[in-house]
Design goal:
This protein is α+β, with helices and mostly antiparallel strands and 544 residues long. The protein contains 20 helices and seven strands. Helix 3 packs antiparallel against helix 4, helix 18 runs parallel beside helix 20 and helix 19 runs antiparallel to helix 20.
């Protein structure tokens, strides 16, 4: 069986008309007076496609490297200036290509601005972090300045740096500001640049001094780098196939600039832990924390101890698994996210748990807040947020049994309680009730390998006469197992897209089988091929 080859994005000609427009815009680079302005302009250009996806390949390769190639062929002063900036701001591949192309143009005596040689020539000046008392987010501020123009034989010149000429005073001080959101798995969700460094730092210090819900402190540059690298990686992973709506509208414009500035910070330290982080919680430690809560005064009014215990387990698991081992951290945003977003998507609650959960969460807030030292105003705000969310929880949480599904059937499909898996598992195993011959389907459990095989044999009984039935059934089992486990997540997304396009379930399964069989044991290629299916557009409307 031959392996599937990924389509080369260069097989489709790059959009030269788009590149031509960008090169026209790059003429403005010749008029700017500082490398900072140029870097911000080019970062904005490169952000035009950040977070987007192409069916025909990697967007940074197809568009980013395509722009480099186009500028190299143009050979104009604007093109050279653009290449110099991309050599600093681009991805590793873009930077390497841009540097080579820029050197070739400079050897041909193409003109460039005087400041071009100073692009990226910055030194870190200091790093700071503003943290809210909830532990929801960190606002990281990293300040930089350009190295001064080298001086020789000048009175009062700066001392000579190791291995280099004497440097003038630092110029163009500026601050990179990045917001790291821990309610979004530690993603960087906003970024901007300020040239008013002293004013920015002064205001941040004054605000923190007068607000018990804020703290502002210095951060080692090595720690700042580790924190921001983690945050930007989390953002890239969090985007997935979804539109870039999880970040601010301006994040893309500063993404390339932030990535480059972070590299100017010294490496070598571990990422600083978010506020209130603890060592990983073992299962026994989680159980002890739940027992301590249930025995506390905060939980004494809960009327159903059994349901309260299960609800407490969900709260603790969420804090450990989704919030950096911080089960005791509470905030308005965290509680609302847990109650109105995560629970309705991920957790199967029985009716008693649905009734008890908002009340248990209120008790948990009262129990946990004093243990983290949350100020009284933070406690009040969090309790108010839970009270306001209680009514919306009954609307947000849709018990699958209200759709007509038998609770015992739901339990067989969700033995792990993962509510988000219900649709794909029901698609993989649609026949779980009734009799087929002498087989009672309601007694079979698709989570168990032997029962899963029986269910698949019944589902595909019409194909039993195939000479390759055993091998064919094995591939059906492979796809069913992947759908059951959500591995990769793109498989269910591709299946849904094919269903939306009008294909029946049997055809969809065979398409998934063909892709999996053709690609073999290559997870990245399988995910990419399924992405191609999930991204199939709707048919355009018929012409007039």
């Amino acid at each position: 069986m031959s392996r599937r080859r990924r389509r080369d994005p260069r097989g489709t000609p790059p959009p030269d008309d788009v590149f031509a427009e960008m090169l026209v815009a790059a003429r403005e680079l010749l008029a700017v007076r500082s490398p900072l302005d140029a870097e911000l302009m080019v970062s904005d250009m490169l952000g035009a496609w950040w977070g987007r996806r192409l069916r025909r390949g990697d967007v940074e390769e197809f568009l980013g490297e395509g722009l480099v190639d186009y500028a190299a062929k143009a050979g104009t002063p604007a093109a050279l200036t653009l290449l110099i900036a991309i050599a600093y701001l681009g991805t590793a591949r873009q930077a390497a290509k841009a540097e080579g192309a820029a050197l070739a143009l400079m050897e041909s005596d193409v003109a460039r601005p005087r400041w071009a040689e100073r692009v990226g020539a910055v030194k870190p000046q200091g790093c700071y972090v503003s943290r809210d008392a909830y532990g929801d987010q960190d606002t990281v501020v990293c300040t930089f300045a350009y190295r001064g123009v080298p001086r020789t034989g000048t009175a009062g010149a700066a001392p000579e740096e190791p291995g280099g000429a004497a440097q003038g005073p630092a110029e163009d001080p500026h601050a990179l500001v990045v917001i790291v959101d821990y309610n979004m798995r530690g993603m960087a969700r906003d970024a901007w640049v300020s040239s008013q460094v002293d004013t920015l730092l002064e205001k941040a210090g004054i605000e923190a001094a007068g607000n018990p819900m804020l703290r502002f402190e210095e951060l080692e540059p090595q720690q700042a780098r580790a924190l921001l690298e983690f945050a930007m990686k989390a953002t890239a992973e969090g985007l997935g196939r979804k539109p870039a709506t999880i970040v601010s509208d301006g994040y893309s414009a500063y993404h390339a600039f932030a990535r480059a500035r972070i590299k100017a910070l010294p490496p070598g330290r571990k990422r600083p832990a978010p506020l209130f982080s603890e060592a990983p919680y073992s299962r026994d430690r989680r159980a002890m924390l739940a027992a301590e809560f249930l025995a506390s005064d905060a939980a004494e009014h809960l009327s159903d101890p059994s349901a309260a215990s299960r609800c407490a387990d969900h709260i603790i698991d969420y804090g450990c698994d989704q919030d950096f081992n911080r089960p005791l951290r509470v905030s308005p945003t965290k509680c609302e996210t847990f109650l109105l977003d995560w629970l309705p998507r991920k957790v199967l609650l029985d009716p008693a748990e649905q009734d008890a959960m908002p009340h248990v969460l209120l008790s948990w807030v009262r129990f946990a807040a004093p243990r983290t030292g949350l100020p009284e105003e933070g406690l009040r705000a969090t309790l108010d947020a839970v009270y306001e969310a209680m009514g919306r929880f009954t609307e947000a949480y849709r018990d699958p049994t209200t759709f007509g599904l038998d609770r015992s059937l739901v339990r067989r499909l969700l033995p792990d309680g993962d509510l988000s898996a219900l649709a794909r598992r029901a698609f993989a195993f649609p026949f779980l009730e009734g009799m087929r011959g002498d087989v009672d389907l309601s007694a079979l459990h698709p989570a168990e390998d032997a029962d899963r095989r029986i269910l698949l044999e019944i589902d595909h009984a019409a194909e039993r006469d195939r000479p390759d039935f055993a091998e064919h059934l094995a591939w059906h089992e492979e796809i069913a197992t992947r759908l059951w486990n959500g591995d990769p997540e793109q498989m269910w997304e591709a299946a849904q897209r094919l269903l939306d396009l009008g294909h029946d379930r049997h055809d969809v399964l065979h398409v998934l089988m063909e892709i999996a069989e053709r690609i073999g044991d290559h997870p990245d290629e399988l995910a990419a091929a399924l992405d191609d299916i999930a991204d199939i557009p709707d048919e355009p409307p018929p012409g007039p």
